[in-house]
Structure formats: C-alpha cells, structure tokens
Design a protein that fits this description.
about 400 residues, single chain
C-alpha cells in the first residue's frame, strides 16, 4: 500500500496537481525568528528581517511591519504551529497577537552567521567613523582618515560587541590607540552666559579644567564667554553653570582644522610602533623568566669564547656609529634609543652601549657591556642580565 501511495503522489505532482499539505503546517522563508522558552516549551514567531531591533528600540511601533504572521509556532523552520493548551499554560491566554508582543520583548532573536558578521562589521565601521569625527592629531588638530583609523584598530586587535554602543566602544579603544600613535579627543566649543558677579568664578573654573577662552563679551549685567575644553569636562561645566543659574550652549561638538593628518604620521610608522610595543612586552616577559632561572656558573671555554666576542666587536671598525660609552651619553640623534635603553641603568648602573651599522644596510645594531665588561649582543639580553643583577 505504501509504494502505491508514493507513486500516486508522484503521478499527481507530474500532472501539476497540488500536493496535500497538513493544515497545521505553514512554511515561511527569509524570516527573522524570535524564540521564547518557558515551562519546558519552545515558542517562535516569524518576523521581517531588520525590524525586531527597530521595534525593541521604539523606532517601529506597527506590528504589521514587524510580524510576517501573528501565528505562534513551535518550530518556524518546519512550519509547526504551537498548541493552544501550551499557550494558555505558559501565557494564560490564547490571544496570539498579545503573545507575539511578549515574545518580541522577551524572546531571543535568532541570527545567522552571515547576519552576525554583517552586524559586527557595521558596528566596527560606526566605531571607526566615531573616532574620525571626534578625534584629532594633537600636532595639527586635524582628523585622521578612516582608513588609517581602521588599520590602527585592527593592529591593536580591537573587536566590537554588536549589542553595545559603537561610540562607547570606540572611546574605550582610544587609550590603546594613544600608545601607538598621537591621537586625542577633539575639544568641544561652548558658550556660557552668566551674571557679571559670577564672571571671574567662571574664568577660574575654565582655567582649572584646562579650557581656552576664545571670546569674552562683557555686558552691563551679563557676561558671555566662548571657550574650548576637553569633552570629558562637559558634565562638570553643566553642573557649574546650573549652580550659578547661567546658560550653557554647545557651539561645536568637535573643534578641528580642515583636511586630514595622513601626511604627518604614516601607517608604516604606526605599524612599526605596534611591533616595537609587542617586542617590549615579550622582552619583559622573557626577562622575568630569566630572573626565575637558577644561575649556572660558566665554564672556562664559555669565558674564553665570550672574551673573543668582546675583542672582535669592540675593535675599531668603520661601521661604528657611536663608540662604546654610557647609555646616558648617547647623542641627541639617538634620543629614542637612549630613552629606551635607560631601563637597563635603572636595574643596574654602569652599563655601556655601542652603536654599529650593518654593512650594506641602514639597520643599526646596539651592543651592550655590563659593569663587569661582559658583552650582550641585544637589548633583551642586557635587560635580562641587569634585572637578574638587581634581584641578586
């Protein structure tokens, strides 16, 4: 009987006749599913894509623009309706439209991998534009181009949470960006009107918060000041103006010059700064590991080999840029190295350094000599040895 039934259905389909579909099943495609679980029972509703979040945020109020159907499902993808007894048991009613509202508000929105990735990228781009619109290069007071900000965020391994505000996450990333290249929040411009007897108090308050006064219009009974200040000070000024019964007006959200700062700090410099910061962290970790290791006495061959290296590298050579001397005595053109190498002297005084250029290359190598005269070919080796000496 079963094979004959299957053949009959196949013949009916071939003739173009409609197949029988159970009345309890209604299949929907291209939908956003909101799922709600309670009392061990699952309920689902079918919504239009990109409308659920709009409804929850209050931008969309018409249910007809959100729901594809007011029918409550046990499984939308299979088209299985929820049973009325389950609805009454969980929600206390069988009014499906009212239940849809509850599920919309409390249910979990099911998102596909592609949708989740698209939403994450959207929030990431919003974070990039937030930094472009609100931050500047301190040297030029101009914004950075979006491409450079995006590269910097990826270099510090910045990741976004699609459920949180893009602006909040972007400003949280600012301190990490400041570690690899010059960037700061653009100042805000305010206009304040206060009574004449409160003018000096306002001027002092602006100075205490590192603000810059641009205009000062003095009237017979009122004073109007225009000034710029860090946006983080907004709440403090708002409270101050309310206390003196004045008026505070935001004139410009971000004070910046026209143009971009792409020419003043290139991406190659930024990337090298990131790599150097990562190297410094790795070197510090290695140094701590080295300190924890037991000190092993060097054998005679090791001492002889080290003496040979010392003699070879310290001999006169046309490639020596800066002859052996104290780290603090490095010339101004090597100021960045001097500041970086200063850590060694902090752990153990008396270290010396020599800068040598590699033959046929623009790379400069630094070799170090301990107070005992031992040679260290790298900064990491010298730092580890100095830290070990400080601990002993």
């Amino acid at each position: 009987r079963t094979p004959r039934g299957r053949r009959a259905r196949g013949e009916a389909t071939a003739r173009g006749e409609a197949m029988f579909v159970p009345v309890g099943i209604k299949k929907l495609t291209n939908v956003a599913i909101v799922r709600y679980k309670s009392h061990g029972t699952r309920f689902e509703i079918a919504c239009y894509k990109n409308t659920v979040l709009a409804y929850r945020s209050g931008f969309e109020k018409d249910l007809d623009n959100v729901l594809q159907s007011t029918q409550i499902y046990a499984n939308v993808s299979k088209g299985v309706f929820a049973k009325d007894e389950d609805l009454i048991n969980v929600f206390g009613t069988s009014d499906q439209e009212a239940i849809c509202v509850i599920i919309l508000q409390k249910g979990e929105l099911q998102v596909s991998d592609k949708e989740r990735k698209a939403e994450t990228e959207h929030v990431f781009r919003d974070a990039v534009m937030t930094l472009v619109e609100k931050c500047v290069n301190p040297a030029t007071n101009r914004p950075y181009p979006p491409g450079m900000i995006e590269t910097a965020l990826r270099d510090i391994h910045f990741s976004v949470d699609p459920k949180r505000s893009a602006k909040q996450q972007a400003l949280e990333a600012l301190p990490k960006l400041q570690e690899i290249f010059p960037i700061k929040r653009a100042a805000m411009r305010f206009k304040v009107n206060v009574r004449s007897d409160k003018a000096q108090e306002l001027i002092d308050f602006i100075g205490e918060n590192d603000g810059e006064i641009e205009t000062n219009d003095v009237g017979s009974t009122e004073v109007s000041l225009t000034f710029t200040v860090d946006p983080a000070k907004y709440r403090a000024f708002d409270k101050f103006v309310k206390d003196v019964k004045g008026r505070l007006e935001v004139v410009t959200l971000a004070v910046m010059e026209e143009g971009t700062s792409s020419g003043t700090f290139d991406e190659d410099t930024m990337k090298s700064t990131v790599k150097q910061a990562e190297l410094d962290k790795a070197e510090e970790a290695l140094a701590k590991m080295e300190i924890s290791r037991p000190v092993v006495a060097r054998s005679a061959p090791d001492v002889q080999r080290r003496a040979t290296q010392l003699e070879t590298l310290s001999s006169d050579d046309a490639n020596i840029l800066v002859k052996r001397g104290p780290i603090a005595a490095l010339p101004e053109e090597h100021e960045s190295r001097r500041e970086r190498f200063a850590d060694i002297d902090k752990y153990q005084e008396g270290w010396e350094v020599e800068l040598r250029a590699r033959e046929g290359s623009s790379i400069v190598d630094a070799v170090f000599y301990s107070p005992e005269g031992d040679l260290c070919k790298t900064y990491a080796d010298a730092r580890r040895k100095a830290m070990a000496a400080a601990k002993s």
